[in-house]
């Protein structure tokens, strides 16, 4: 997408211009989240795989956006995004 712009070919007194518009490929899930079970007090990891590497991911619990904290850790490497939930309790279901 960042390559979208006007390009110019200059040969002395003559110029030719063209506009390039790059259409982004939509990001899809290659591997969706799977249901997990964990014992209270333990840690659980939720993982998904995207079709495009390093795509920003927003994690949510219900309608609430999650933020990195002692409870929640986010990892992302290439196309794989992970949410680690520490010290799970019944309210985390």
From TrEMBL:
Localization, UniProt: Cytoplasm
Alphabetized Pfam families for the sequence: I-set
Disulfide bond is among the record's keywords: yes
An example Gene Ontology CC term for this record: cytoplasm
Span of domain Ig-like: 26-93
Annotated SUPFAM superfamilies: Immunoglobulin (SSF48726)
Main location: cytoplasm
Keywords from the named record: Cytoplasm, Disulfide bond, Phosphoprotein
UniProt protein name: OBSCN protein
Source organism (scientific name): Hemiprocne comata
């Amino acid at each position: 997408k960042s390559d979208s712009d006007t390009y110019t070919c200059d040969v002395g007194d003559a110029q030719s211009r063209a506009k390039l518009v790059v259409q982004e490929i939509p990001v899809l899930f290659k591997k969706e989240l799977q249901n997990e079970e964990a014992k209270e007090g333990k840690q659980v990891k939720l993982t998904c795989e995207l079709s495009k590497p390093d795509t920003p991911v927003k994690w949510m619990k219900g309608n609430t956006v999650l933020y990195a904290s002692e409870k929640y850790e986010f990892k992302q490497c290439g196309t794989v995004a992970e949410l680690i939930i520490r010290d799970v309790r019944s309210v985390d279901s």
